C-alpha cells in the first residue's frame, strides 16, 4: 500500500500474557516520538491498558467500531498527552470481537483496510504500533494481516519460551493473508542477568529459536513500573537512564531513522 518513505507498521504479539507487550509499545512510542516521528499506537486489547496510559478519558468511537462497523480509523484516533503520539483506543467490547465478526468474509483484513485508508491521507504516520491481546484471536489476526513486521516480547522463563513456537507458527499462517509480513525478532523482556536460569533460557533461545533474537534486552526493573505509574514513557520519565537508552537502541534496530533528536538532554 502507498506509505510515506519512513512508514512502518509493527505488531507486538505473543499469545502469553505478562510478557510486557504494552510496556514495550509505550517505550517504543516514546523513543520514536522524541525523535520527531509521528506515532500511532493502536490498542487491540479489551483490557485497554495502553488506552488508559495515553488518554485521560476514553471517548467513542474506538478501534472496536473500526473493526466491527468499519468506521474510518481517523474517527477513532485521539491525540495523547505526548507530542507526536496519537492513539486508536480500545474498550471492553473487544472481548467479544470473535462473535461480532463471525461470518464476515473480510473479518481478518478490516484493520489493514482501515490503516491503508488512513496512510493514504495527508501526513501519514511514520510508525504504527499495534498492541495485541495475549491470545491468537481475531484482533491479533487483524494486526498480523496489517503489519509489515511483528515483534515478539518474551520473558526468559520456560513456559514463555515454550510458547514462542506457537506464535511463530501463527505468524507463518498469517503470511498467507499478508505475504510481506516478517518477524522483526524476539525481544527478551523482563530480564535479570543475576538469575542464572534466565541466562540459560536466553542462550538456548538464541541457539534454537529459528528467528532473530534481538541483542537489546529490556531489564526487569522497578523503573519501568514507576514510569507506568507516572504515566510517562521511560524516555520521558528518566531520559538519561539506561532504561530509556534500551528503548532508543530498540527503536534504531526496528526502524532506523536520522536521529539527532534522540539526544536526551532536552528532557531534563
How would you describe the overall organization of this protein?
- The chain has one domain: P-loop containing nucleotide triphosphate hydrolases (Rossmann fold).
- The chain has helices at 21-34, 49-54, 63-69, 73-76, 97-100, 110-119, 138-146, 158-174, 196-208, 222-230, 234-237, 242-254, and strands spanning 8-12, 39-43, 78-79, 85-88, 127-131, 149-154, 182-191, 213-219.
- Residues 1-5 and 260-268 have low confidence and may be disordered.
- α1 (21-34) crosses α12 (242-254) and α6 (110-119) packs parallel to α7.
- With 268 residues, it is α/β, with parallel strands linked by helices.
Poorly predicted ranges:
1-5, 260-268
- Total discrete domains: 1
| Mean pLDDT level | 89
Distance between the termini: 39 Å
Q: Specify the CATH architecture.
A: 3-Layer(aba) Sandwich
Radius of gyration: 17 Å
Shape: globular
Count of strand segments: 8
Describe the sheet with the most strands: 8 strands, mixed
Query: What is the strand content?
Result: 15-25%
Q: In CATH's first tier, which class applies? A: Alpha Beta
The CATH superfamily is known as P-loop containing nucleotide triphosphate hydrolases
